Amino acid sequence: MDTAPDADPSTGRCAEEPAWLALRSVAYDEALGGVQQTSGPDRATATEEEFRAAMSRLAGGVALVAAHDPDEGAAGEDVGMTATAFLSVSLTPPMVLISVRTGSRMGDLLEGQPLWAVSVLAEGQRQTADRFAMRNRISDRLLFADLPHERGPRSGAPLVTGALANVECRTASRVEAGDHTLVIGHVLAAHLPSPGARPLIHFKGRYETLG
Q: Positive or negative CA dihedral for 27, 29, 31, 35?
């Protein structure tokens, strides 16, 4: 398999991995009671390289987080972000969680835009994941112009056509966690555009499919 877009050749990590690394750091700290020392009596935490290597072994689905920025241009502009940190938080009421990097365009947008959506990508939508994981993008306008999608009736955000699932959300709370912010949202609507499709998987810095 090829490495993900903008991968670091030394680690094979893709550009958007910090979002899920920050989220999974919190989850693992809670589950294990803190990061265990790996070597040396004075080590308080794992090194960044050790942590990246360990967390890259946790396979996860790939999703496109999207929101509409009404203040960008006359008609506004859609913004997207590839992410592998998308979790169910609560069934009653239905709530989910995403993690966004502090200072990123999505992070800045969601500070003021409470409505957003997540499309869980199918195995044939790797190109979509690649495009929205590119670094230093000036605008997402052209990316969405070439992407089959419809506008969510509850969120106003783009919903990817052919995705395994689309979930529309309204932000309920935000939690700062290191260099990321965990955004917890109430689920306003959930759709299954392609319930029989197979998922796109991210594992060890690469996109995979179920064998």
A: positive
Angle between helices 17-32 and 48-55 (to 10 degrees): 90
For residue 129, give the 3-state DSSP assignment: helix
Between the CA atoms of 138, 141, 143 and 145, what dihedral angle is there, to the nearest 10 degrees?
-160
Whole-number mean pLDDT of the chain? 83
Q: Has residue 12 been placed in a domain?
A: no
Q: Is residue 4 included in any domain, yes or no?
A: no
- The whole-model pTM stands at 0.77
**Residue 125 DSSP symbol:** G
Residue 2 belongs to a domain: no
As for how many domains the chain has, the answer is: 1
Where residue 176 sits, what CATH number does that domain have? 2.30.110.10
Q: Is 162 within the bounds of a domain?
A: yes
Q: How confident is the model at residue 185 (pLDDT cuts 50, 70, 90)?
A: very high
CB atoms < 10 A from the CB of 27, how many? 14
Helix (H, G, I), strand (E, B) or coil at 144: helix
Burial of 137 (0-12, 13-18, 19+ CB in 10 A): middle
* Residue 182 pLDDT > 70: yes
Torsion angle, alpha carbons of 136, 112, 130, 84, to 10: 120
Distance CA(154)–CA(167), nearest Å, equals 10
Q: For residue range 121-166, what is the model confidence (pLDDT) as tens digits?
A: 999 999 999 999 998 888 899 999 999 999 999 999 999 999 999 9
